[in-house]
């Protein structure tokens, strides 16, 4: 895992200054504390910050040059099948000077050209220069584990692992993209390929970009399958799923530095730790985060799993002192990021990095195997659409009788949101269930300029378009397909990669191995959802080695008690930041609406913590990036 940056002046042909590339890479030092390198030749410049994980010698130094400069590579990620691929390439006559996967990427391009992407099993974002054809080749892994930003200017193209690197380029002036800001208010993240900055974009997952002969072209090289092709029994499915997961875990244990795992105590991370324990001779190092508030604290479950597998376990209790890292959080995430689970993820990454350099996790289990409550809700919504009018009217009457909730996590709130969304079209219905700031609330909040940008596009059009385009044959399949192209790459994976790399920690996700993804996609929904039980086939597959209480306990989610914090220790901070002259003078929001939300929340009349946190992170991001107060360096202690 590393940080990359570069520029190719294919329009002006102006020389690229090494100082510029170094400055951009210096901003990414947290991603690669173990080394740095710059390669500049005429109108091309590549830079690299190294986190040494596989082949920690100087032989794996980047940018890596092969063949006296015909090929140059700056690369971030891990190719887990690199040894197998290396042997295959050696059989084709290729020779290697190192034991790194970086050199394997170069040799694979020599052998296969851009088709090399089909041979990689792993996570990556890279830039490769082919001097013979004068081609720049940028690529990103299939699911978007590794980030890659780029922008075009009058000279050519500039790219980097993180948006903050562009601040070191004098030609880049950070300005807010209002359309993206509207998306942020709706989803609490900025969906790709846009970014929160004017003119700065994200290369989509499973895509590559070519610059050749003065032209820029985009290509998709992989697509998550949606066709149900599995014809075996449930016993066959659970056996094959477990075998593929075990293989994915085994490949992710390759490391020349200390390695461990995140352990929440939920099903997915417990499965990964259990498989690691089967594959390793030494106790697995595991790491967990908890809270004082019982409804948010999973530490007892994590400790139970750790004891069950005999792991070397460390955990940490997050308190309201977490507010000290909020400015660091806003700086680290590059764009406004309102997912409150970024807070425990940040602390978990910090704790883990004190002991290991690589950590496996359970990300992707829910998206692969229908683990979220919303998938069952969409099935019920599909039933509602086909129900007689009398039943639909009865549901509407029932909705009117549910009081307004004062606690976000309460059953009353979930019921209210569920029934309120049922009469809506499918895309809006799904949007209401996964977001926390409805359009009816957004419009009164926003002032004229931002409101105008919001009204140019239906707030849930991203979801509606995704559901309409999906070729899945049933509603849960369509929703999982949409999540794979939206929530997974732009929220979940951003959250984990950013938090981990803020401390120079590599995060690996066996559930997101593309062969695991493809197998899960081939299974019928009935093997994932069975009655009220989600991830049915996975639970059957792992019940022989996981405690029954862990297999069957209700999903808690990686949340924080932000509702309580904003009514107590963080109340003053929220009022000071959101109602400050600076915040109001930006001209985005009506002060009276924010004041009302704060007052209603603090008094316990309503639970607005999600929307208030959204606004807090936006303000802190604005101060860091637009006002120029960033450049925070989170402490590793």
What would your notes on this structure say?
The strands form three sheets. The chain has a six-stranded antiparallel β-sheet with strand order 2-3-1-9-8-10, covered by helices on one side. Strands 4-5-6-7-11-12 form a six-stranded antiparallel β-sheet, with helices on one face. A five-stranded parallel β-sheet has the order 15-14-13-16-17, sandwiched between helices. Helices cover 43% and strands 15% of the residues. It is α+β, with helices and mostly antiparallel strands. It has 27 helices and 17 strands.
Helix/strand layout:
Blueprint: E1 2-8, H1 18-27, E2 35-41, E3 44-50, E4 64-66, E5 71-79, H2 82-91, H3 101-112, E6 122-130, E7 135-140, E8 149-152, E9 157-160, H4 178-187, E10 200-202, E11 207-212, E12 215-220, H5 234-251, E13 259-262, H6 267-279, E14 285-291, H7 299-309, E15 312-318, H8 326-332, H9 342-353, E16 358-360, H10 365-369, H11 373-385, H12 389-400, H13 411-421, H14 426-434, H15 439-445, H16 448-455, H17 461-469, H18 475-485, H19 487-501, E17 506-508, H20 514-522, H21 536-542, H22 548-552, H23 562-567, H24 571-578, H25 581-585, H26 591-602, H27 609-626
Parallel strand pairs: 13-14, 13-16, 14-15, 16-17
Antiparallel strand pairs: 1-3, 1-9, 2-3, 4-5, 5-6, 6-7, 7-11, 8-9, 8-10, 11-12
Helix pairs in contact: 2-3, 4-16, 5-6, 5-20, 5-21, 6-7, 8-27, 9-19, 11-18, 12-13, 14-17, 17-18, 18-19, 24-26
């Amino acid at each position: 895992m590393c940080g990359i940056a570069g520029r190719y002046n294919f329009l002006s042909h102006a020389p690229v200054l090494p100082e510029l590339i170094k400055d951009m890479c210096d901003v990414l030092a947290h991603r690669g504390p173990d080394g740095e390198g710059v390669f500049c030749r005429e109108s091309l410049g590549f830079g690299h910050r190294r986190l040494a994980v596989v082949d920690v010698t100087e032989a794996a130094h980047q940018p890596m040059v092969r063949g006296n400069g015909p090929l140059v590579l700056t690369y971030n990620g891990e190719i887990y099948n690199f040894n197998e691929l290396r042997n295959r390439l050696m059989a084709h006559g290729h020779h290697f000077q190192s034991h790194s996967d970086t050199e394997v990427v170069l040799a694979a391009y020599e052998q296969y050209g851009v088709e090399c992407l089909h041979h990689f099993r792993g996570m990556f974002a890279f830039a490769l220069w082919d001097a013979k054809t004068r081609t720049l080749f940028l690529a990103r892994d299939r699911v978007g584990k590794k980030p890659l930003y780029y922008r075009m200017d009058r000279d050519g193209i500039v790219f980097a692992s993180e948006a903050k690197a562009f601040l070191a380029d004098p030609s880049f002036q950070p300005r807010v993209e209002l359309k993206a800001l509207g998306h942020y208010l709706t989803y609490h993240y900025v969906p790709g390929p846009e970014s929160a900055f004017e003119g700065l974009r994200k290369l989509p997952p499973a895509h590559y970009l070519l610059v050749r002969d003065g032209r820029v072209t985009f290509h998709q090289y992989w697509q998550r399958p949606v066709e149900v092709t599995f014809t075996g029994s449930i016993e066959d499915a659970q056996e094959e799923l477990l075998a593929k997961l075990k293989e994915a875990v085994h490949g992710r244990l390759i490391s020349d530095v200390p390695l461990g795992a995140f352990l929440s105590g939920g099903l997915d991370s417990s499965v990964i730790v259990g498989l690691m324990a089967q594959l390793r001779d030494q106790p697995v190092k595991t790491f967990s985060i908890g809270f004082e508030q019982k409804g948010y604290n999973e530490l007892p479950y994590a400790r139970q799993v750790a004891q069950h597998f005999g792991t070397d376990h460390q955990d940490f209790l997050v308190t309201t002192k977490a507010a000290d890292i909020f400015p660091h959080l806003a700086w680290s995430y590059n764009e406004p990021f309102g997912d409150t689970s970024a807070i425990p993820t940040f602390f978990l990454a910090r704790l883990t990095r004190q002991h290991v350099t690589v950590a496996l996790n359970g990300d992707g289990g829910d998206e692969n195997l229908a683990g979220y409550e919303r998938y069952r809700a969409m099935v019920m919504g599909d039933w509602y659409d086909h129900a007689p009018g009398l039943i639909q009217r009865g549901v509407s009457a029932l909705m009117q009788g549910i009081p307004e909730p004062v606690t976000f996590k309460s059953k009353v709130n979930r019921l209210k949101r569920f029934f309120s969304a049922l009469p809506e079209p499918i895309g809006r219905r799904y949007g209401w269930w996964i977001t926390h700031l409805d359009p009816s609330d957004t419009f009164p909040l926003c002032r004229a300029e931002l409101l105008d940008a919001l009204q140019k596009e239906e707030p849930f059009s991203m979801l509606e378009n995704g559901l309409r385009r999906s070729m899945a044959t049933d509603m849960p399949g369509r929703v999982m397909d949409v999540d794979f192209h939206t929530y997974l790459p732009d929220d979940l994976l951003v959250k984990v990669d950013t938090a981990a790399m803020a401390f120079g920690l590599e995060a690996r996700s066996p559930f997101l191995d593309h062969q695991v993804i493809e197998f899960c996609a081939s299974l019928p929904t009935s093997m994932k959802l069975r009655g009220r039980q989600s991830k049915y086939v996975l639970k059957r597959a792992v019940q022989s080695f996981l405690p029954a209480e862990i297999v069957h306990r209700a999903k808690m989610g990686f949340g924080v008690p932000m509702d309580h914090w904003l009514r107590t220790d963080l109340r003053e901070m929220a009022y000071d930041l959101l109602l400050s002259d600076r915040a109001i003078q930006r001209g985005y929001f009506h002060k009276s609406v924010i004041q009302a939300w704060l007052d209603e929340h603090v008094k316990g009349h309503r639970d607005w913590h999600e929307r208030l946190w959204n606004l807090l992170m936006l303000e802190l991001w604005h101060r860091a990036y637009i006002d120029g107060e960033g450049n925070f360096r989170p402490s590793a202690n």
